[in-house]
Amino acid sequence: MMTSRTSMHACHRGPVRRKWRRPIGALLIGLLPQALSCAPVPVPPAPKSVQRVAVLPAHTPGSDTVAPASASSGGDLFNAPRLTLADVVTAAARLELARQGFQVVDPLSVETALHGRTPASAQMAAQLARETQLDATAMFIDVRQWEPNSTGMRTDAVIVAIDVSLIDPQTGKVVWEVHRSPKPVPLYGVLLQGQAAVFVAETVMRELLAPLGGKDAAA
User: Distance (Å, rounded) from C-alpha 130 to C-alpha 77?
Assistant: First the structure.
């Protein structure tokens, strides 16, 4: 009788354990693809051939003047009397490249070579890179989203999505690229809109261009 009762008790418990295991297993299996999709994608360093970089004017559809030149911490790299978002982002990229030890083509030479043209896509940037005589790897920056979270004159954060590509000037092929999905860049303290734009641009460029691995980058 004891054996029988033990068997009956075991049979009763068995389905209960399976009942709880199945939802947990299904939950883990269901979460696995989401976890993998959220994992950061490793970005390789730039090819060793990238030594000299010409930063093309950033593509920023619908942007307008965002800051006076005095709002920037970039010194002579920000030398326009009034800066558009494209000016701020492009200058921030040049500043970070120089910090990492890359040779950066001065903006006047880039502007002269492009004859006022601004690439609106990586394909157009590749075409311009082939046509110009800058003797440098071209950098194309596509600002897909720049959405300040502002209250009056104060901006608390900016949601930013940006793609950056390095293009071989001889072949027009993309040799390195990085993509930033939309996410906020928090701001600390009281910043006016123009100051916020400069701070965010410099912060995002440090984030995106860090994988380039400039050998002479400052600590």
Answer: 25
